[in-house]
Amino acid sequence: MPVPKAELHLHIEGTLEPEPAFELAARNGVELPYADTEELREAYRFEDLQSFLNLYYELMAVLRTERDFEDLANAYLARAAAQGVRHAEIFFDPQAHLARGLSMGTVVEGLSRALDRSEANHGISTQLIMCFLRDESAESAMKTLEAAKPYLDRIVGIGLDSAEVGHPPVKFREVYEAAAALGLRRVAHAGEEGPPEYITEALDVLGVERVDHGLRCMESPALVERLVRDRVPLTLCPLSNVRLRTVDTLADHPLPAMLDAGLLCTVNSDDPAYFGGYAGDNFDAVRSALGLSEERLRELARNSFVASFLEDDEERRARYLAEVEAYEF
Ligand code: HPA
Ligand code: ZN
C-alpha cells in the first residue's frame, strides 16, 4: 500500500477520464468534437494553462445530472483510495456548470451523494472547496457565493482558479471578505503562472490559509522567508507543472529546493485525468525523478495532513499522522 496521504489540490472536473467522458456524452446526448478516446487523448498536449483550460471546460459539457457528478466523484475516490489517499479536500467549479444551465444543487447534491459514502466505501474522509473562476467577474463570484448559501454545511471553504495572469487576487477582495464572514476557509491558486506578487496579495488581501501551487515564490527570497516563518502550506502539483510547461521536466522541479528551504510543501494531482497521474503517481514521479529520500516522502505525507482543514476533528488528524509515522517504505 502507498504511503497514507491527504489530497488538498484536486479539481473534481479534472478527474474526468476519456472513457467515462464518452459514456456520459452518450448517456446525456451530448456531442463531443472528438471521434473517440484516442482522438481525445491526442488533444492532451498542452502549451500552457489556457490551452488546458479550453479542453477542461469543453469536456465538462458531458456532466448534466446529479448522478453524473456522483459517478465522477466515485470514480475519483476509488482511484485515490488505491493510491493511499485517506483524506481529500476537493475543488469544484460551480460557475462552469451554472453557465451551462445546471443548478448549484445538481452539482453539490450530486457530489455529496458520493462524498457522504466515501468513508464507508473508500476509506477516505472528504471536504468540498468551492472555487471561483478568476477570469470571470467579481460580481459573478459574489452571485455564486450567494447561490451556495443553502449548501454551506457541505462546503468547507473557497478557492480561486482558472486563468491566473491578468486576474490578480485583489479582484476578489470583497467576495473573500464575505466568505470569511460566513466562516469559510480560504485558499487560492497563486504563483502557478502568475508572479510572486500574486502570492503575497493572496495572503495579504484575501487572507488565504494555503496557497495552491505557489511555485513561483522561489523567485522571491523574502516571500520564501515569510511562507516558512508563517508555516503557510503550498499545494504543489508536479505532474501538472510539467504538462502545463511551468517546469521543463520533472527533474527540473524546484520541490527539493523548496523542502530544503523549509517550505511546508504538499504533493497533489490537480487534474489527474489530464496530467498523467493521481496523487500516488505524483509521489512516485517525484521520488524517481528527484531522488527524494524516504524521509522526504514521509515529510510530504505528514505535511498533507498538517495542512488539511481538519480542525474540527483533531483526533482524526492525529490518527492519520500516526499512520504516516508508522508507514514502512
Ligand atoms: N490551474 C488553474 N485553474 C485550474 C487548474 C489549474 O491547474 N485546474 C483546473 N482549473
Ligand atoms: Zn489547480
Describe the structure.
The protein has 329 residues and is of the alpha/beta class. It has a single domain (5-308), classed as TIM Barrel. Helix content is 48%, strand content 14%. The chain contains 17 helices and eight strands. It has helices at 18-28, 37-42, 49-59, 66-82, 94-98, 104-115, 118-122, 138-148, 173-181, 196-204, 221-229, 238-243, 255-260, 272-275, 279-290, 294-306, 314-326, and strands spanning 5-11, 85-92, 125-133, 157-161, 185-190, 210-213, 233-236, 264-267. Strands 1-2-3-4-5-6-7-8 form an eight-stranded parallel sheet. Strand 4, helix 9 and strand 5 (185-190) form a beta-alpha-beta unit. The chain is globular and about 50 Å long. Hypoxanthine binds next to helix 3.
Can you tell me the number of structural domains? 1
What is the radius of gyration computed over CA atoms, rounded to a whole number of angstroms?
18 Å
| CATH homologous superfamily caption | Metal-dependent hydrolases
Structural class: alpha/beta
Annotation, overall tally of beta strands: 8
Top-tier CATH class: Alpha Beta
Q: Which sequence of strands runs across the widest sheet?
A: 1-2-3-4-5-6-7-8
CATH fold title: TIM Barrel
Strand proportion, as a percent range, falls in 5-15%
For the biggest sheet, the summary is: 8 strands, parallel
Distance between the termini: 9 Å
Task: Compute the number of helices.
Answer: 17
* Average pLDDT metric: 98
